[in-house]
């Protein structure tokens, strides 16, 4: 359980109160500047909110030692770059306080198809390839952690730069891990259509305030998403599933 | 790593051999137990050579830590103004009084420590030190310290001016066993602290947030690194004046040869820095024999082209 209780961070996050459960893939959605990254930064434990409490597997987050936190949650901020050259293979386990099992590394490398990149210098990789390596790094962290209980992954637009094949492979891999019950994922996304289909629940933020947390279809009934995002969104059944997409033909004003 | 060690040892031997007493007479005399040779080595050459090695090692170690901490390959130990403040402390004392060398060292030390403490206090809010702020404040401190040094030069007498200039250019000629002891104590402390820094600084390549994310106690690491860098820079400046370039180039040489992992990078930087200062000191003595050039000049003259060659090689790969 990753509980965020009555959290307020002056000038950055008005109010958030929810619980990320192991086994679920939760999408964190909202317009730019809604406080999504601030919320993840708080949940990473690097910053402290003005008030409220965050509990990770029952323990107050700020009482856990950094290494204990690293064993129970991983966080990939928006832009992570490396200023010196090193082979991508080194990047995958850089700075980890434990030696990850070879099988875990191989599984993640296979999932994200990193084999051809492993010996390349990270500075020569494209933006999307670097992003894929960074995502692999945090996935290895949660999957190889010596902590036996539930672990959580906080992803800040981490799939945005990936091509469609790798976005889908990454999401499906994460979903598989969630279904196994030991992982909960909070994933910031601007791709509402994909988030609508892939996520178990949405956490909707607007202007720093939590507007709701529920399965996307439920949320879409309760809240006018077009209003929140400032653009008409269409919702309909298509190919036997409910889908959501932005309308193309519309009147600007 | 072994190669770097071998280079360092040969540089040490070369530097030991250079001087008015020719190298064949020196080593022969040592072998035969000639008291003159022993005296030359024991009171003149060995302290100088060891001081050169120690200062080179300290500066390169500190430079490697700074480059990783600020995630910037252009960082060097002088970045946050500690070296310049130590310099100001010493120069003020030389210019205004006829103080002894140990007083001069003390002044450099107190000044550097005071400035670092002040910067750290000002740059830390709510228990978080802002490194970007520290960098900018360091520029301001550097500017103030250089103007202070300039002012003291303007005010000092002819004789003091000579001393100050020599000292500003950097030199190991004032070496004593006391200095050697201090510098090697500092180097020992830095090297002994290295195991606590390796994983943290490895993770730091990903940025402060990501380092925190993998379980690095970032504030503790910042405090420890900054304190050790200040100790190293202050010791180097206090004993040998302003020796530039080693702190920038030493870590680069180590990184090009040994990669970005700090377990090898930090000890490698120490060896690279030692080799650089030793070779520069030997050259400083050999070129103008029996006189000597300030080693700081020699270092830039020698290190510049060397660094260029490394850069060119890197571009071809």
UniProtKB/TrEMBL annotation, chain A:
Coiled coil: none annotated. Residues 2-232 form the ABC transporter domain. The keyword Translocase applies. Part of the ABC transporter complex HmuTUV involved in hemin import. Responsible for energy coupling to the transport system. It comes from Sulfurivirga caldicuralii. GO terms for molecular function: ATP binding; ATP hydrolysis activity. The keyword Cell membrane does not apply. Keywords: ATP-binding, Nucleotide-binding, Translocase, Transport. It comes from the Bacteria. This is Iron complex transport system ATP-binding protein.
TrEMBL record, chain B:
This is Iron complex transport system permease protein. It is found in: Cell membrane. It comes from Sulfurivirga caldicuralii. Belongs to the binding-protein-dependent transport system permease family. FecCD subfamily. It holds the Pfam family FecCD. One of its GO terms (cellular component) is plasma membrane. GO terms for biological process: siderophore-iron import into cell. The chain crosses the membrane at residues 48-66, 78-96, 102-120, 132-155, 175-197, 223-249, 269-288, 295-314. Gene3D superfamilies: ABC transporter involved in vitamin B12 uptake, BtuC. It is a multi-pass membrane protein. Keywords: Cell membrane, Membrane, Transmembrane, Transmembrane helix, Transport. One of its GO terms (molecular function) is transmembrane transporter activity.
């Amino acid at each position: 359980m990753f509980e965020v209780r009555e959290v307020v961070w002056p000038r950055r996050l008005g109010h958030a109160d929810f619980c990320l459960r192991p086994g679920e893939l939760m999408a964190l959605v909202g317009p730019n500047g809604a406080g999504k990254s601030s919320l993840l930064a708080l949940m990473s434990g690097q910053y402290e909110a003005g008030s409220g409490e965050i509990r990770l597997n029952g323990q107050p987050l700020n009482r856990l030692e950094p290494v204990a936190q690293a064993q129970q949650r991983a966080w990939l901020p928006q832009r992570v770059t490396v200023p010196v050259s090193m082979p991508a293979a080194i990047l995958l386990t850089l700075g980890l306080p434990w030696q990850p099992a070879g099988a875990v590394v191989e599984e993640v490398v296979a999932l994200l198809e990193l084999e051809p990149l492993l010996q390349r210098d990270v500075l020569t990789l494209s933006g999307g390839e670097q992003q894929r390596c960074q995502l692999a790094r945090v996935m290895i962290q949660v999957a190889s952690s010596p902590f036996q209980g539930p672990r959580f992954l906080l992803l800040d637009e981490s799939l945005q730069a990936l091509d469609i094949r790798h976005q889908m492979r990454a999401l499906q891999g994460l979903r598989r891990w969630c279904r196994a019950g030991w992982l909960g994922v909070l994933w910031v996304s601007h791709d509402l259509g994909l988030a609508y289909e892939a996520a178990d629940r949405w956490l909707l933020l607007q202007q720093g305030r939590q507007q709701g947390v529920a399965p996307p279809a439920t949320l879409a009934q309760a809240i006018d998403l077009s209003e929140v995002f400032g653009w008409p969104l269409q919702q309909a059944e298509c190919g036997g599933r409910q889908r959501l997409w932005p309308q193309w033909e519309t009147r600007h004003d | 790593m072994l190669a770097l060690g071998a280079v360092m040892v040969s540089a040490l031997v070369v530097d030991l051999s250079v001087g008015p007493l020719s190298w064949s007479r020196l080593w022969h005399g040592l072998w035969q137990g000639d008291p003159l040779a022993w005296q030359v080595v024991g009171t003149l050459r060995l302290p100088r050579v060891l001081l050169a090695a120690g200062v080179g090692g300290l500066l390169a170690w500190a430079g490697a830590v700074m480059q990783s901490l600020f995630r910037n390959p252009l960082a060097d130990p002088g970045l946050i103004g500690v070296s310049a403040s130590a310099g100001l402390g010493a120069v003020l004392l030389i210019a205004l009084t006829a103080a002894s060398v140990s007083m001069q060292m003390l002044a450099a030390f107190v000044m550097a420590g005071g400035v670092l403490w002040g910067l750290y206090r000002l740059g830390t809010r709510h228990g978080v030190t802002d490194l970007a702020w520290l960098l900018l404040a360091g520029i301001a401190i550097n500017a103030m310290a250089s103007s202070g040094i300039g002012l003291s030069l303007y005010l000092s007498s002819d004789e003091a001016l000579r001393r100050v200039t020599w000292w500003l250019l950097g030199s190991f000629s004032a070496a004593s066993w006391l200095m050697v002891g201090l510098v090697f104590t500092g180097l020992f402390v830095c090297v002994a602290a290295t195991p606590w820094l390796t994983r943290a600084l490895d993770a730091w390549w990903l940025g402060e947030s990501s380092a925190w994310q993998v379980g690095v106690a970032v504030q503790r690491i910042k405090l420890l690194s900054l304190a050790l860098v200040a100790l190293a820079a202050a010791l180097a400046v206090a004993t040998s004046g302003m020796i530039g370039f080693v702190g920038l180039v030493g870590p680069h040489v180590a990184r090009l040869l040994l990669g970005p992992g700090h377990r090898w990078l930090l000890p490698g930087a120490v060896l690279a820095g030692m080799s650089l200062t030793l070779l520069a000191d030997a050259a400083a003595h050999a070129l103008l024999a029996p006189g000597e050039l300030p080693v700081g000049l020699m270092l830039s003259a020698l290190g510049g082209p060397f660094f260029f060659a490394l850069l060119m090689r890197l571009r071809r790969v």
